[in-house]
Amino acid sequence: MMSMSRRRLGMGLASFLAAWALMACAGRGPVPAAPAAPRLAVYVGTYTGGGSHGIYRFELDPFSGAWTEPVLAGESENPSFLALHPNGRLLYAVNELSDFGGAATGAVSAFVIGAAGRLTLAGQQASGGADPCYLAVDRGGRNLLVANYSGGSVAVLPIGADGGLRPASAVRRHEGTGPNRERQGKAHAHTIVLDSAERFALAADLGSDRIFVYRYLAATGGLEPNRPGATELEPGSGPRHLAWHPSGSYVYAISELRSTVTAFRYDARGGTLEPFQVISTLPAGFSGQNTAAEVAVSPDGRFLYASNRGDDSLAWFMIDAATGALAPAGLVPSRGRTPRLFAIEPSGRWLLAANQDSDSVVVFRLDPATGRPEPVGRPLAISKPVSVLFAPPPR
Description:
Layout lengths: L3 H23 L13 E7 L7 E7 L10 E5 L6 E3 L5 E6 L11 E7 L5 E8 L5 E6 L5 E6 L4 E6 L11 E4 L15 E6 L5 E6 L4 E8 L4 E11 L6 E6 L5 E6 L4 E8 L4 E9 L10 E7 L5 E7 L3 E7 L6 E8 L5 E6 L5 E6 L4 E7 L6 E3 L4 E2 L3 E7 L4
Antiparallel strand pairs: 1-2, 1-29, 2-3, 4-5, 5-6, 6-7, 8-9, 9-10, 10-11, 12-13, 13-14, 14-15, 16-17, 17-18, 18-19, 20-21, 21-22, 22-23, 24-25, 25-26, 26-27, 26-28
């Protein structure tokens, strides 16, 4: 039988842990992480020129949601979107610029992740178009794919054995316009993603209301137009980002200008898309100005999330396992202004949202039964946050 003193010790430890978790949820600032729950590294890409100087880093406790204060991990100009090398030892960032090296292009920077998560610049390469805004790295770490918004182009940058970037091996410039004269006077590539087999690359273009499809040639770093070469969306919708269902059978496109999500069936054999549903990200009766931004599917494939800039909210939907169809589940305030991008932690327990115009990142706990995001603690203060990236331990 346990002695009275040992029982009291156990009760005291339990009380301490309960109080520690309560303080974390109450938002009283960073608190120590539980020894059994290694903290996750989180990097935040920003727009610079104001209070930000580049890429910031903090740590998140996956048990409680407690976080450490953000610190500058590496200086960089407008590193608005981030991606990791599969080995976890290199980080890539766009430099969202219209001029690099005297040419009408932006750049991509490569960083080595060092002690305490600090970033050391390992080199830069032209992105193949102005204002790069999205990156993807293939599973083998052979190539980096980039979408250039103002340049209306997508490109492939080979990755060397040292993780450094080589000059573009392929650049594809989009053509097309849309009915929104202010935003769709020319092509604006906004995303490029690979399918699960890495046979095809899909690129959402806001300016032309199309999703372009390319055959991806990993060995040579090539992008060849597929047949058909693109899928049309509703005129004036402005497709922005794409999210895959874990099954690989469905892909979801969020349209910035109409604040909608379009669901597609995906044929992996031919790289073709078949739209079957369009659904609003906004509450019924909404009449203000809004532009949708990010879309993501939970790791278990049960829920889809979207961000609204204007309504300043996060919408979420239930996904039918048999059909991939979406059903509205609710909206919650983003607890800040202009929620740009967000990221879901790999276990599906946490969602971190970057509120660009209130200089904050907010931690949300995701209810495993309903998918509802619940805010935890106070917002983290980071100037002009745009994107959020979880970084696993290097291997």
